[in-house]
């Protein structure tokens, strides 16, 4: 019973479908051609009665595949939400009647379009299985936090407060990171006037007192294996002993290294002890503990201090940091206050180009600095000269002239460099067999992942492990491993604490999801996962190379090893596989292939071409829906199939389409390249790459290259997607029909 | 009918903008029971009215679509639209909320077929989605991405012939003109307050003449002009005469960093204006000129390169100046900006086709209107404080934040709420 496929096709007549498609004989097509077992029509399928009708068939008739022939799969999801059955949708509303004119001459082709979508929905249903949760799923409520600074400690404390156990691995001899050396921090509460204690001692005590938190000092992670729910991690101490522990998820809070001010010879850091960095100033202030701050060279009490903002930052000069570190303006204001609060007669001047003190707290703190008599000079420092006193030379941008000012002490606001480990994109590609010279890796790995794709998380930009997605700031390309704090993007203590709290949530979520075999973002909750037919596999390794998330390893015989809980279910592996052995229960080469083959291909002299559109379900498909909603008409010859990601597009779909007489194929994916919009990072790019080689295939069939077009499409391109389809229809009219019609 | 069974293990999220949506989804995807309350007929908030995000210049509906799919797929979240919290009592782990739900006059039977709107002939109502720059019908879907995808009847239309016309057009018995406001009583263990921001009222900045000059608009209105479905059909044209706006001035800190208006820096406006200079270029190419009048350009942290790229654009001029006043050149309709460029102290009187005020972010809920006592700073943002119990701010209710930071902050807030409900559930060891 359970294995018997019983397809119910339900055809809605509401929203004008009945009027427009009444004569298209859809029930007959569903039953006689598509061979659905149960076929029913309803005037208003999404209302309670229509839904109850379907549910009754599931309960009483054993229907386990439901083809809803009504509106778009994006509409009425609350209504068509049946448990334990596979559901497919024929988009007759947005995709047919709304995209086509209601005219006599359009009627026949519109009917054919609807009929094909019914055939496709039933065909897809036949080849789908309702996904069952991954058997590999494991629940492990232990979180590994790598790094014991403010970010790492915050993640640990916050996760523990929610009931999870945490292990902190800290490389140094104590917790607290850079902050432990700070005198005070920027305030986080009104009235935002004065620096406040860092609170780091309290945090260290809280970590120590929490029986859910274990701390390994002088330790590093020497091996990370496994996947969410079952990470196996080697923790090694400086003395050489190693223990192996298992974790559900990982937070990487490996922090930052201060930029090496020796790279700024013009600012005399290497020549004078009285030119210090912001972190060195913290140490001086801490030593002074509210008393007079003394200059390092001779211990004289500082009576004048100049802060040089953006020292080696926001600069494209060789060796400088091109970015802004975000915190330094507020930090310099805070440090200027150290002097002013101790003795208001000390001159403290901040030389800046843009003062960046955002938010409610930032601006008030800046104002407080002004009230305390800190001077702010808009200028660009060119050099620091040594002498009895230090001389800071700068271009005064307000007076538009060269200026110079003397001071006892100069503080350089240098930037943050992320401790993000090995830049795996700079590693030699292991599958190059041209005797590639081993590139020496100048940095130590943070995580030492055993993953096929390298030992650390991919860097985004400037060495930071940030997410590329504005809407999803915690997304990394290694499932169940989240970065937080200044390794993610430059940030100060307060931001790091917020950030680390959010990262703790994501780590908890990864534990809960992997425990139930559910996918992580963006297909959250998806229970399907890829499997492969070992006997057909040629060990070509394309799937392991192309997986954007490093989910697939290789075994000793070079067969792929799918780590399901690392997988995001995009199907890029399925698209990559030349022998088509990779599939998901509810999404496979077959589920799409059978849809496109179920389309009725008219004979050549009918002059009714067929255009296959493979549209990414994330952006292109909604854009097509909105084309319909806004009545941007497109050719009735298009047959649109949503795909999980364009990266899942297997070349066989193109050759199948061409061989079965389609006249054109359009692929619509998300933006690729530097500012990629692909939700699966590399999927769209991979698809574009594969399609760039489709010409050879077409040539072997003696077909024109114009018959296959690949586009990057945004969700807002509703007018454009309609145009792209119409363009292809025009192209086919020009070059003629495919000769492959049988 | 709104089904709203809630317990003291429920997390109530107030506000369905990007922060509230995120907080709700992140908590629900940890397995928690969430009720999401949204004041307007659809979720998405301010971001659904933006053309593009900085720094990637990607479209906000891309991420919204993913979030909507998460929302549709997650049975742990119940969404209540047109709802506002009127009262909160109790304490952490045990709150009671009164929520008033305004009538939509459209039931769940609605298929979003649009027949009700088609039946109406004229656009009689100010379209809030377009900040009142255009009119819409009295039966409407707020926008293309609106979720729930269900029409709304404007309450002002009730009692009119048009209302009956709309009702008569509906074949699905989805319009109920007698629907009444109702009050729900909810329990909650923790409350996430994600009520967001509103643009500062530009008319209060008298010297800029927003209320007097048609060609002085706000940054949020400028965003709407770029939407192909927006009030100008996606064209950057000036309101007075429809002339192409090829010479656009952006005035930074319009209402922000100003003791007379908002004391705080609204953080996003510099990046927003830099982004909007790219719109001018996108539309008019080399003919499109932008001038940015600024105090400091705050392109903070790794996105500073966006600023560097805009600086490298010859068609964008930067003037370090707080603009003193705007006057009108009556003949041309051009607004004229008057002030002093503090870099070298040069006086200027510059005419532009259109002026965009980069208006600041003000908390949506005025200080005195909070239905519950929480610690607010002078600017009206919610401070994190133990005295707030289990009421946690998320997104721009906590500070002026960009989308990325609002989402990050909302994720943190979701954990804070989970800590409380887990404690209630006795999960703590």
Overview of the molecule:
The complex is a heterodimer of chains A (742) and B (429). Chain A is of the alpha/beta class and 742 residues long. Helix content of chain A is 28%, strand content 20%. Chain A is built from 19 helices and 29 strands. A 7-stranded mixed beta sheet of chain A has the order 13-19-14-15-16-17-18. In chain A, helix 15 (620-629) links the parallel strand 26 and strand 27 (638-643). In chain A, helix 2 (26-33) packs parallel to helix 5, helix 6 packs across helix 7 (200-209) and helix 15 packs across helix 19. Chain A is elongated and about 95 Å long. Residues 434-439 of chain A have low confidence and may be disordered. With 429 residues, chain B is an alpha/beta fold. Chain B folds into 3 domains: 10-102 and 181-196 and 364-424, FAD/NAD(P)-binding domain (3-Layer(bba) Sandwich), CATH 3.50.50; 115-169, no CATH class; 200-360, FAD/NAD(P)-binding domain, CATH 3.50.50. Chain B has helices spanning 18-28, 60-73, 115-119, 161-169, 219-225, 269-284, 304-311, 403-424; strands at residues 10-14, 33-37, 77-80, 83-91, 94-101, 125-126, 135-136, 139-140, 152-153, 182-188, 190-193, 197-199, 216-218, 247-254, 289-294, 316-320, 325-329, 334-341, 346-351, 354-359, 361-363, 391-393. The longest helix of chain B is centred in the C-terminal third of the chain and has 22 residues, at 403-424. Chain B is globular. The two termini of chain B are 39 Å apart. The mean pLDDT of chain B is 96. At the A-B interface, helix 6, helix 10, helix 11 and helix 15 of A face helix 1, helix 2, helix 7 and helix 8 of B.
Topology:
The complex is a heterodimer of chains A (about 750) and B (about 425).
Chain A: E1 7-12, H1 17-21, H2 26-33, E2 38-42, H3 48-60, E3 65-70, E4 86-91, H4 93-97, H5 104-126, E5 142-146, H6 150-161, E6 165-169, H7 200-209, E7 213-216, E8 219-225, E9 231-237, E10 242-247, E11 249-252, E12 256-258, E13 275-277, H8 278-288, E14 304-308, H9 328-342, E15 347-352, H10 359-371, E16 375-385, E17 390-396, E18 401-407, E19 409-412, E20 416-418, E21 481-483, H11 493-515, E22 531-532, H12 542-546, E23 552-554, E24 560-562, H13 572-576, E25 582-583, H14 589-598, E26 611-616, H15 620-629, E27 638-643, H16 651-659, E28 664-669, H17 683-691, H18 694-700, E29 708-712, H19 718-735
Parallel strand pairs in A: 1-2, 1-3, 3-4, 5-6, 5-11, 6-7, 11-21, 13-19, 14-15, 14-19, 15-16, 26-27, 26-28, 28-29
Antiparallel strand pairs in A: 8-9, 9-10, 12-20, 16-17, 17-18, 22-25, 23-24
Chain B: E1 10-14, H1 18-28, E2 33-37, H2 60-73, E3 77-80, E4 83-91, E5 94-101, H3 115-119, E6 125-126, E7 135-136, E8 139-140, E9 152-153, H4 161-169, E10 182-188, E11 190-193, E12 197-199, E13 216-218, H5 219-225, E14 247-254, H6 269-284, E15 289-294, H7 304-311, E16 316-320, E17 325-329, E18 334-341, E19 346-351, E20 354-359, E21 361-363, E22 391-393, H8 403-424
Parallel strand pairs in B: 1-2, 1-11, 2-3, 11-22, 13-20, 14-15, 14-20, 15-16
Antiparallel strand pairs in B: 4-5, 5-10, 6-7, 8-9, 12-21, 17-18, 18-19
Helix pairs in contact in B: 1-2, 1-8
């Amino acid at each position: 019973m359970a294995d018997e496929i019983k397809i119910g096709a339900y055809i809605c007549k509401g929203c004008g479908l009945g009027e427009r498609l009444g004569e298209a004989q859809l029930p007959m097509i569903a039953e006689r051609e598509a061979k659905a077992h149960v076929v029913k029509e309803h005037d208003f399928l999404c209302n309670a009665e229509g839904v109850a009708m379907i549910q009754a068939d599931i309960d009483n008739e054993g229907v386990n595949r439901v083809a809803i022939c009504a509106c778009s799969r994006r509409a009425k999801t609350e209504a068509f939400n049946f448990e334990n059955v596979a559901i497919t949708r024929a988009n007759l509303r947005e995709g047919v009647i709304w995209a086509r004119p209601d005219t006599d001459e359009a009627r026949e082709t519109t009917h054919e379009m609807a009929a094909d979508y019914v055939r496709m929905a039933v065909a897809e249903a036949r080849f789908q299985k309702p996904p069952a949760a991954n058997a590999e799923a494991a629940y492990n409520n232990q979180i590994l936090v790598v790094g014991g600074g403010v970010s790492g400690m915050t993640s640990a404390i916050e996760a523990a407060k929610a009931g999870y156990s945490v292990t902190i691995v800290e490389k140094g001899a104590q917790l607290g990171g850079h902050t432990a050396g700070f005198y005070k921090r920027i305030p986080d509460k009104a009235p935002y006037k004065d620096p406040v204690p860092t609170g780091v001692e309290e945090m260290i005590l809280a970590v120590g007192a929490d029986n859910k938190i274990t701390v390994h000092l002088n330790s590093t992670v020497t091996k990370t294996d496994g996947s969410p729910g079952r990470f196996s991690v080697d923790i090694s101490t400086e003395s050489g002993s190693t223990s192996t522990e298992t974790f559900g998820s990982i937070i990487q809070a490996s922090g930052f290294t201060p930029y090496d001010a020796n790279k700024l010879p013009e600012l005399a850091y290497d020549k004078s002890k009285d030119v210090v960095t912001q972190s060195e100033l913290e140490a001086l202030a801490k030593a002074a503990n509210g008393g007079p701050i003394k200059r390092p060279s001779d211990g004289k009490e500082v009576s004048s201090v100049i802060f040089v903002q953006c020292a080696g930052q926001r600069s494209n000069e060789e060796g400088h940091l091109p970015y802004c570190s975000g915190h330094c303006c507020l930090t310099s204001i805070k440090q200027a206050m150290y002097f002013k609060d101790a003795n208001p007669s000390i001159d403290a001047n901040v030389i800046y180009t843009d003062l960046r003190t955002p938010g409610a707290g930032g601006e008030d703190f800046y104002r407080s600095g002004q009230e305390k008599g800190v001077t702010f000079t808009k200028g660009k420092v060119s050099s620091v000269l040594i002498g009895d006193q230090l001389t800071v030379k700068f271009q005064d941008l307000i007076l538009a002239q060269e200026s110079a000012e003397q001071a006892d002490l100069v503080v350089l606001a240098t930037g943050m460099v992320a401790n993000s480990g090995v830049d795996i994109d700079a590693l030699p590609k292991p599958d190059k067999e041209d005797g590639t010279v081993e590139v020496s890796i100048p940095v130590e790995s943070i995580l030492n992942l055993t993953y096929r794709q390298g030992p650390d998380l991919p860097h985004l930009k400037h060495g930071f492990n940030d997410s590329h997605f504005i809407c999803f700031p915690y997304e990394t390309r290694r499932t169940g491993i989240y970065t937080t704090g200044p390794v993610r993007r430059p940030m100060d203590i307060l931001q790091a604490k917020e950030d680390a709290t959010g990262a703790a949530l994501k780590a908890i979520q990864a534990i809960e999801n992997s425990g139930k075999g559910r996918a992580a973002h963006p297909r959250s909750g998806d229970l399907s996962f890829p499997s492969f037919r070992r006997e057909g596999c040629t060990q070509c390794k394309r799937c392991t190379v192309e997986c954007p998330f490093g989910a697939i390893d290789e075994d000793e015989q070079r067969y792929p090893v799918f780590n399901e809980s690392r997988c995001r279910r995009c199907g890029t592996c399925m698209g990559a596989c030349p022998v088509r052995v990779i599939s998901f229960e509810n999404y496979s080469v077959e589920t799409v292939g059978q849809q496109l083959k179920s389309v009725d291909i008219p004979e050549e002299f009918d002059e009714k071409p067929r255009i296959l559109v493979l549209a990414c379900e994330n952006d292109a498909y909604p854009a097509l829906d909105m084309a319909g909603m806004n009545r941007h008409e497109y050719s009735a010859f298009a047959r649109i199939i949503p795909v999980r990601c364009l990266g899942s597009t297997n070349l066989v779909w193109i050759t199948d389409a061409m061989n079965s007489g389609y006249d054109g194929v359009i692929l619509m994916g998300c933006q690729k390249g530097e500012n990629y919009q692909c939700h699966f990072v590399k999927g769209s790019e991979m698809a574009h790459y594969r399609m760039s080689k489709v010409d050879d295939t077409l040539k072997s069939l003696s077909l024109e290259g114009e018959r296959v077009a690949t586009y990057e499409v945004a969700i807002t391109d509703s007018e454009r997607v309609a145009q792209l389809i119409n363009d292809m229809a025009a192209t086919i009219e020009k070059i003629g029909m495919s000769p492959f019609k049988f | 009918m709104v089904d709203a069974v809630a317990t003291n293990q429920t997390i109530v999220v107030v506000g369905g903008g990007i922060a509230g949506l995120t907080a709700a989804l992140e908590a629900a995807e940890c397995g928690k029971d969430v009720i999401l309350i949204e004041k307007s007929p659809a979720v998405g908030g301010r971001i659904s009215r933006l053309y593009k995000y900085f720094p990637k210049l990607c479209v906000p509906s891309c991420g919204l679509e993913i979030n909507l799919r998460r929302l549709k797929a997650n049975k742990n979240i119940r969404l209540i639209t047109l709802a506002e919290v009127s009262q909160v009592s109790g304490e952490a782990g045990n709150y009671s909320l009164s929520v008033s739900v305004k009538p939509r006059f459209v039931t769940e039977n609605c298929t979003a077929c649009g027949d009700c709107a088609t039946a109406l002939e004229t656009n009689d109502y100010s379209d809030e989605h377009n900040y009142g720059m255009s009119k819409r019908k009295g039966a409407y879907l707020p926008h293309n991405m609106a979720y729930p995808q269900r029409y709304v009847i404007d309450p002002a239309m009730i009692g009119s012939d048009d209302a009956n016309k709309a009702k008569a057009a509906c074949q699905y018995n989805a319009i109920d003109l007698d629907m009444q406001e109702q009050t729900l009583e909810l329990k909650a263990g923790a409350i996430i307050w994600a009520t967001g921001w509103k643009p500062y009222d530009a008319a209060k900045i008298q010297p800029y003449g927003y209320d007097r000059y048609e060609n002085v608009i706000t940054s949020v209105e400028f965003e709407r002009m770029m939407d192909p479905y927006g009030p100008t059909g996606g064209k950057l044209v000036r309101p007075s005469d429809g002339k192409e706006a090829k010479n656009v001035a952006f005035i930074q800190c319009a209402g922000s960093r100003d003791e007379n208006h908002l004391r705080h820096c609204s953080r996003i406006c510099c990046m927003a204006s830099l982004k909007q200079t790219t719109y001018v270029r996108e539309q008019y190419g080399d003919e499109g000129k932008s001038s940015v009048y600024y105090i400091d350009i705050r392109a903070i942290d790794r996105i500073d390169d966006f600023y560097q790229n805009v600086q490298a654009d010859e068609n964008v001029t930067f003037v370090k100046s707080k603009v003193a006043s705007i006057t009108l050149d009556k003949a041309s309709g051009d607004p004229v900006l008057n002030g002093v460029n503090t870099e070298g102290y040069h006086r200027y009187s510059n005419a532009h086709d259109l002026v965009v005020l980069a208006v600041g972010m003000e908390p949506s809920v005025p200080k005195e209107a909070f239905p519950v006592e929480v610690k607010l700073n002078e600017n009206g943002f919610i401070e994190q404080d133990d005295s707030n119990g289990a009421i946690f701010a998320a997104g721009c209710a906590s500070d002026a934040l960009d989308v990325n930071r609002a989402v990050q902050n909302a994720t943190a807030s979701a954990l804070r709420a989970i800590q409380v409900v887990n404690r209630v559930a006795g999960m703590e060891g």
